[in-house]
Amino acid sequence: MQITLTGDMVGRVLALAKKDRKLAQAVAEHLLTTVDRGAMANFLLGEGVAVALLTERLTKDPEGVMKGLQLPAPRRDPAQRRSRRPKRRQLSAAQADKIKAEVRAFLRQHPGASHKEITTAVAFSSEGHYDRVMKELKKAGEVVQKGQKRMTRYSLKGRTK
């Protein structure tokens, strides 16, 4: 039977191994099954010596041994999985109104402004928020759009450049 150990489980076993030398020896023997025999030979360690050294270290400093282990990340229950994409930050009506006022004020001073000029002057938290605010201003008839793509210019209605 194979069990995937999590960091928490290993921490508990190592804490017990600090008090119980036989458990420490069993853990050491198990850990050494994952070590390359050639690497042990490079350090002139026989299996018995390596087990004894690791057992000694487990009983003295289990936290240090745990830090040295590279454990797989614990698996999440599929029911608890979340989307990897961060949640979108919604723009409240009050925030949208404040940004609309800033856009209107900017367009009063700079009729015929481009997308880049508007986004530089007004702090939009995302491109989607810019799209929403400009769409609402155009729908309300407050802003007039002229041109297409990169040549698009925006002005307040009745104030064209």
User: Helix amount, in percent?
Assistant: 55-70%
Mean pLDDT: 76
Q: Unreliable stretches, pLDDT < 50, 5 or more residues? A: none
User: What amount of the residues lies in strands?
Assistant: under 5%
Order of helices and strands: HHHHHHHHEE
What is the alpha-carbon Rg in Å?
32 Å
| Quaternary organisation | single chain
- From the N-terminal CA to the C-terminal CA, the straight-line distance is 78 Å
> What does the largest sheet look like?
2 strands, antiparallel
Tell me the number of strands: 2
Number of domains: 2
| Total of DSSP H or I helical runs spanning 4+ residues | 8
Strands of the biggest beta sheet: in what spatial order? 1-2
Structural class: mainly alpha
* Gross geometry: rod-shaped
Describe the protein's topology.
Elements: H1 7-19, H2 21-32, H3 37-42, H4 47-60, H5 62-68, H6 93-109, H7 115-121, H8 127-139, E1 143-146, E2 153-156
Antiparallel strand pairs: 1-2
Quick structural gist:
With 161 residues, this protein is mainly α. 55% of the residues lie in helices and 5% in strands. It has 2 domains: 7-72, no CATH class; 93-156, Orthogonal Bundle (Arc Repressor Mutant, subunit A), CATH 1.10.10.
Can you offer a commentary on this structure?
This protein is mainly α and 161 residues long. It folds into two domains: 7-72, no CATH class; 93-156, Winged helix-like DNA-binding domain superfamily/Winged helix DNA-binding domain (Arc Repressor Mutant, subunit A), CATH 1.10.10. Helix content is 55%, strand content 5%. The chain contains eight helices and two strands; from the N terminus they run ααααααααββ. A two-stranded antiparallel ribbon has the order 1-2. A hairpin with a 6-residue loop joins strand 1 and strand 2 (153-156). Helix 1 (7-19) runs antiparallel to helix 5 and helix 2 packs across helix 4 (47-60). It starts with 6 loop residues before the first helix and ends in a 5-residue tail after the last strand. The mean pLDDT is 76.
